[in-house]
């Protein structure tokens, strides 16, 4: 199976606190981001992701403060996303202590921010955060994906926290973003987000097969086996989870020991 696989806790932030919802809605408080990040550091996480889901201007200052406090205490890569629109924003977040930034809505609306960011800061700093949903109305120019239940759909890119469909094919957009300079893809399926039935393996595998950069599977973890499935059947390079870690259902160490016992190479 080759390269070491990564396990990544994700912290959705609003007004400086960690929150968690289901299908992008119904948020509840899950704690202090710096304390949680420190816990994940001790448990052996490979990276931590902070996503500013409010992403308003006044929240940016809170976010920069949180990043600075976390970066002082973390000895692992930190990726930050949410409301990052320009190379100036990227620079501000990196300067605060982040190692990478993730771009979602801004990348769709102004794709040149990917290429400009990659040129200024390096491909390894630019992560395309791709939120997708299933669309069963097939049309020309989209990539059909065959689901395990026998149905066929295509995956549509959605922006603004899942509220706005774009008409863009997820696989084509992933390829385009990588061509522009994205060094990694953070893929979240709205169908599975927060519902704990496992990752959307079909689209994860399809994206993994069609790009030559690491793909992070996100959305839907509820059990140890879901992580294994994400790596083996989803072909992901990393698996990201939130609520199972925040509410103490699993620790990063639990996940890694389980994966190792099943032959998935991880850093213990």
Automatic annotation (TrEMBL):
Give the reaction(s) catalysed.
Answer: 5-[(5-phospho-1-deoxy-D-ribulos-1-ylimino)methylamino]-1-(5-phospho-beta-D-ribosyl)imidazole-4-carboxamide + L-glutamine = D-erythro-1-(imidazol-4-yl)glycerol 3-phosphate + 5-amino-1-(5-phospho-beta-D-ribosyl)imidazole-4-carboxamide + L-glutamate + H(+)
SUPFAM superfamilies, per the entry: Ribulose-phoshate binding barrel
Looking at the keywords, is Transmembrane helix present?
A: no
Give the enzyme's EC designation. Answer: 4.3.2.10
Annotated catalytic residues:
12, 131
CDD domains (UniProt xref): HisF
Offer an example of a GO molecular function term for this protein.
imidazoleglycerol-phosphate synthase activity
**This protein's UniProt keywords:** Amino-acid biosynthesis, Cytoplasm, Histidine biosynthesis, Lyase
One Pfam family in the UniProt entry: His_biosynth
Q: Under which pathway is this protein filed? A: Amino-acid biosynthesis; L-histidine biosynthesis; L-histidine from 5-phospho-alpha-D-ribose 1-diphosphate: step 5/9
Record carries keyword Ion transport: no
Superkingdom of origin: Archaea
Instruction: Provide the top EC class.
Output: lyase
| UniProt cross-references to PANTHER family, sorted A to Z | IMIDAZOLE GLYCEROL PHOSPHATE SYNTHASE HISHF, IMIDAZOLE GLYCEROL PHOSPHATE SYNTHASE SUBUNIT HISF/H IGP SYNTHASE SUBUNIT HISF/H
NCBIfam families for this protein: hisF (TIGR00735)
Role noted for this protein: IGPS catalyzes the conversion of PRFAR and glutamine to IGP, AICAR and glutamate. The HisF subunit catalyzes the cyclization activity that produces IGP and AICAR from PRFAR using the ammonia provided by the HisH subunit.
The name under which this protein is listed is Imidazole glycerol phosphate synthase subunit HisF
Q: What organism is the protein native to?
A: Methanorbis rubei
The beginning of the lineage is: Archaea, Methanobacteriati, Methanobacteriota, Stenosarchaea group, Methanomicrobia
Per the record, the gene is: hisF
């Amino acid at each position: 199976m080759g390269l070491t696989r990564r396990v990544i806790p994700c912290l959705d932030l609003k007004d400086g606190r960690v929150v968690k919802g289901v299908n992008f809605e119904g948020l509840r408080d899950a704690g202090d981001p710096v304390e949680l990040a420190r816990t994940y550091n001790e448990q052996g996480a490979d990276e931590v992701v902070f996503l500013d889901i409010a992403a308003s201007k006044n929240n940016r200052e809170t976010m920069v403060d949180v990043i600075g406090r976390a970066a002082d205490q973390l000895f692992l890569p930190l990726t930050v996303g949410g409301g990052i629109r320009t190379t100036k924003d990227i620079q501000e977040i990196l300067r605060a202590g982040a190692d990478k930034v993730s771009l979602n809505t801004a990348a769709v609306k102004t794709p040149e921010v990917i290429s400009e960011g990659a040129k200024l800061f390096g491909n390894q700093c630019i992560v395309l955060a791709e939120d997708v949903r299933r669309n069963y109305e097939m049309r020309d120019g989209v990539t059909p994906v065959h689901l395990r239940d026998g149905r066929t759909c295509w995956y549509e890119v959605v922006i603004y926290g899942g509220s706005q469909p774009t008409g863009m094919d997820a696989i084509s957009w992933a390829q385009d973003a990588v061509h522009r300079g994205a060094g990694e893809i953070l893929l979240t399926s709205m169908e599975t987000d927060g519902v704990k039935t496992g990752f959307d393996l079909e689209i994860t595998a399809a994206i993994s097969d069609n790009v030559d950069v690491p793909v992070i599977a996100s959305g839907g973890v509820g059990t140890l086996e879901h992580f294994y499935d994400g790596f083996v059947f989803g072909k992901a390079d990393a698996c990201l989870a939130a609520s199972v870690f925040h509410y103490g259902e699993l620790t990063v160490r639990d996940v890694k020991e389980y994966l190792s016992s099943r032959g998935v190479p991880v850093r213990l």
